[in-house]
Structures are given as C-alpha cells and as structure tokens.
Design brief:
The chain has two domains: 9-149, DNA polymerase, domain 1, CATH 1.10.150; 161-339, Intergrase catalytic core (hpI Integrase, Chain A), CATH 1.10.443. 45% of the residues lie in helices and 5% in strands. The protein has helices spanning 22-26, 58-65, 70-86, 94-103, 110-126, 136-149, 161-169, 175-190, 194-199, 241-252, 276-289, 301-312, 317-324, 329-339; strands at 205-208, 211-216, 228-233. The relative contact order is 0.12.
C-alpha cells in the first residue's frame, strides 16, 4: 500500500473533505448556515506519532481523532493534497521537498510554505518514517526563500477604539445590527479570537454586578479544555458591551445554545453558531459601511484592536495578557510596539 494510503485515520482525506454545494461557494455570505460550522484554531500536533488504529476499539479510535483540532486536520488535508497534486510522494526524499519549495517560492507566502513543511513532516511521523523536512538541504532552501522574499508576516489591521466607536455610530437598529453590535463590542472587550467568540454559548455567560463573566472552555492555547474565566466590565461610554450582549440575547430570544447566530434577510435568527469566517466578513462589512478602507481588517482585528488600544492607554502588558490570554509578553509585543509608537515620541517634542 502506498504511503498516502497507509496514513493514520486522522489524515485520511476522504473523511475530511466537506461536501459544499457549488452555489454556496459562489455566495459565501456571513449568514449562510452552511458557513456557520464552528472551527477551532490549530492545535500542537507534536504528540501525534505512529499510532496504529486498526487494532483498537471504536471508543479509543474516537478519542484519538480528538487529538487534533478539526481545523488542523483540514490544514493537513489541504497541504498534502497540494503537495501530491504537484507530484510529491509520501514518503518523500529531501530533494523532492526542496524542489517543491523552490517551485512555489514565488507564488506562496513564506508562512504557507512553512505550514506545508509541517504537514509533510507530520505525515512522515504518523507513518513512523524520518521526516525529510529537517535535512540541511530543505532548511537551506527555506532560508534562501526567506532572504529572497522576506519573512514579514501579514498582520490583521487593528480596529482601534475610536474607529470601533465610529463603526458603531454608523450601524442601524435592525436585528442583524443588534447582533453585530454585540459581537463587535464583546469581541473587542474580551480580546477574543474569532473562534473563541463564536464558541460562546449561553451557559458560558454569567451576569454579575460589575458586568459579565465569560468562561472560555477551549481556545487556541487551551486545546485540552482546562477553561479560562475573564471579566467583561460595564462600559463607561454609550457603547457598553454588557448592555449590547443583553439586548441581543433578548431580541433574539436566546435561552440556550450559541450566543452568536446567523440572521437571514428577513431578520429570522438561526439555531446554529456563526463561523469564524463570518466574524471576519462582519468586521469588513461594518468597517466599509463606516467609510473606512476594509483592506487588512479581519476577525482578528477586534483582538488586535483591543491589545493595541490598551497599550496606547498605558495599560500594563500583564493586564492586557490577563484579558487576551497571550502566553507571554513576547507574543503581545507587536501590539504593544504599535500602540506605543506615538507615546512619548521624541519627534513630538521637536516638530
């Protein structure tokens, strides 16, 4: 049996490819229910090794499948499909992998090539084979591409506090606007990742005198579900996230299940959750409606906007991390740097 045919059940392509009608692909609106399946951020797959699932019972097999987030499995499938469509094989010699990198150096981002290498490496690991991606040839090829292309990673443009208020000012009072207002305010105030935001359900929200306590049961940095509680305080401006969420839940008559759901053109609220991509679409549409160029904005703009705005306001990195869940100051550094570009700027004293 070929290498790809013997891949661990976690990576068998047939079980991972979603059946999406062609018509849906032509109209990926934010409230299309077929785009409302929640997705998790990729997990660390380093502990998944050569596991033979052929001789284990269904219960064990089910838990093994939970070892990787659904989005990680989809990423592996996409990456390996691309590699094999080009002509790559599993197992693969390092010469072939280096040739693959060189063939796509001008068409794929460096970050994408790095992810493709990780998927190729994981496919070898699952089969109990040595990975070709760590060879001197492959590493040198990637270094050369980095030097030629640069390694600056595109970052979501932060939706800063003042721009968020401008966006909110331009919104109406229909059902969809009420939902979007609650989503934008809670996403900003909590510094949430888009996957965390759409995963919030009614049982995760606890009203208290000071505002709301939101329990995140799982996130990018907490794939095992230890959970994290964070406070959303009552706002001191007309744009209070606590009031906005309460109004949305009341208008949508949500008593159980996901908080943020699709709304059709007639104002009918769906039963399932929004997707992470829907958050990105909502951000871009609302920014555009406020007269702001949407280029660079995405679902991550709420999280980036909170961290950057907090840094501009002089909030300590410790307090910012307590809200966003960043593992270290190093992970938060780029937001703090951007937020402090004009704080005490030497040129401001001269010009």
């Amino acid at each position: 049996m070929s290498g790809l045919g013997r891949l661990h059940p976690l990576l068998q392509f047939g079980t991972l490819r979603p059946a999406i009608p062609h018509a849906v692909l032509e109209d990926p609106t934010r409230d299309n229910t077929l785009f409302s399946e929640p997705t998790n951020e990729p997990a660390n797959a380093s502990d998944i090794r050569a596991i033979d699932c052929n001789d284990v019972d269904d219960e064990v097999r089910a838990y093994v499948r939970q070892a990787l987030a659904p989005s990680t499995l989809r990423a592996y499938r996409v990456d390996l499909d691309h590699f094999t469509a080009w002509g790559g094989t599993i197992p693969s010699p390092d010469v072939q992998v280096a040739a693959y990198l060189a063939a796509h150096a001008e068409t794929l981002a460096v970050a994408t090539l790095v992810r493709r290498l990780a998927s190729i490496s994981q496919a070898h690991s699952i089969l109990g084979l040595p990975s070709p991606t760590g060879s001197a040839l492959v590493r040198a090829t990637l270094r050369g591409i980095r030097r030629a292309r640069g390694v600056a990673q595109r970052q979501a443009k932060p939706l800063l506090r003042d721009d968020l208020f401008l966006v909110l000012d331009r919104m109406g009072d229909d059902v969809r606007s009420i939902r979007d207002r609650a989503l934008l305010l809670l996403g900003f105030a909590g510094g949430f990742r888009r996957s965390e935001l759409v995963a919030i359900d009614c049982t995760a929200i606890e009203p208290v005198r000071q505002g709301l306590i939101v329990t995140l049961r799982r996130s990018k940095t907490d794939q095992e579900g230890a959970g994290r509680r964070l406070g959303i305080p009552l706002g001191r401006t007309p744009w209070c996230p606590v009031a906005a969420v309460a109004r949305w839940i009341d208008v949508a008559d949500i008593t159980a299940g996901p908080v943020f759901r699709p709304v059709d053109r007639h104002g009918n609220v769906g039963a399932g959750p929004l997707s992470g991509e829907a958050v990105s679409i909502i951000v871009r549409e609302r920014v555009t409606a406020a007269g702001i160029d949407p280029a660079g904005y995405s679902g991550h703009s709420l999280r980036a906007g909170f961290a950057t705005s907090a840094a501009q306001a002089g909030v300590s990195t410790l307090k910012i991390r307590a809200q966003t869940g960043h593992a270290s100051d190093a992970m938060l550094a780029r937001y703090v740097r951007d937020g402090e570009l004009f704080v005490g700027n030497a040129a401001g004293t001269l010009l």
